[in-house]
Design a protein that fits this description.
The structure holds two protein chains of two kinds.
Chain A: E1 4-6, E2 11-14, E3 19-25, E4 33-38, E5 45-50, E6 54-58, E7 61-66, E8 71-76, E9 85-93, E10 101-104, E11 108-113
Parallel strand pairs in A: 2-11
Antiparallel strand pairs in A: 1-3, 3-8, 4-5, 4-9, 6-7, 7-8, 9-10, 9-11
Chain B: E1 4-6, E2 10-13, E3 19-25, E4 31-38, E5 42-51, E6 54-57, E7 64-70, E8 73-78, E9 87-94, E10 105-106, E11 110-114
Parallel strand pairs in B: 2-11
Antiparallel strand pairs in B: 1-3, 3-8, 4-5, 4-9, 5-6, 7-8, 9-10, 9-11
Classes of the chains: A mainly beta, B mainly beta.
């Protein structure tokens, strides 16, 4: 069983609509949760991180965390064609002295159609 | 802004060659990481380092070694390149403590092809 699970998609969303991405994780000791966006052929870039249960908003993006259900989600409001990319969920876990090994999900591909 | 740079965007090598991939970060981050990314397999951690001269194996260290002689520089070494090491290699760095701890920032990646 994968430690961080995401639906691979593609998630097709009309321009202007809300895209909803989900991620589940298996390690109850996970402390920090991240969403990265990755365009084809490019490296991942950080969208936002969340540490506490509840919602965190940053512009058109909202991350939601529910540690009891081991679930983290990302909402993209007013989706634009430029949001078409693969979105990676990452979860940190304590790991030896480093303390911050990230485990990545396989990513969800999002297609925003004009 | 955090800046992570990698020595090459594209690299073509022959089987059996020794390959060096270099990564430099300019934000005084303690942690540095090397990943490879393959279609269908996602991002997989090869090695990481939390201090100069310190290293830890990740999930797929076989066939690789690393070197961290200075805090800002982390090198990945393929001792004898093989075709199954053809991949996108990504370097990342992060703080060990403080605001934004655990957030990893990625370099642009090196697409390595081994013939």
């Amino acid at each position: 069983q994968k430690e961080v699970e995401q639906n691979s998609g593609p998630l097709s969303v009309p321009e202007g609509a809300i895209a909803s991405l989900n991620c589940t994780y298996s390690d109850r000791g996970s402390q920090s949760f991240f969403w990265y966006r990755q365009y084809s052929g490019k490296s991942p870039e950080l969208i936002m991180f969340i540490y506490s249960n509840g919602d965190k908003e940053d512009g058109r993006f909202t991350a939601q965390l529910n540690k009891a259900s081991q679930y983290v989600s990302l909402l993209i409001r007013d989706s634009q064609p430029s949001d078409s990319a693969t979105y990676l969920c990452a979860v940190s876990a304590l790991y030896k002295a480093a303390g911050n090994k990230l485990t990545f999900g396989g990513g969800t591909r999002v297609l925003v159609k004009p | 802004d955090v800046k992570v740079t990698q020595s090459s965007r594209y690299l073509v090598k022959r089987t059996g060659e020794k390959v060096f991939l270099e990564c430099v970060q300019d934000m005084d981050h303690e942690n540095m990481f090397w990943y490879r990314q393959d279609p269908g397999l996602g991002l997989r951690l090869i090695y990481f380092s939390y201090d100069v001269k310190m290293k830890e194996k990740g999930d797929i260290p076989e066939g690789y070694s690393v070197s961290r002689e200075k805090k800002e520089r982390f090198s990945l070494i393929l001792e004898s390149a093989s075709t199954n090491q053809t991949s996108m290699y990504l370097c990342a760095s992060s703080l060990l403590a403080g605001v934004g701890v655990h957030t990893q920032y990625f370099g642009p990646g090196t697409r390595l092809t081994v013939l």
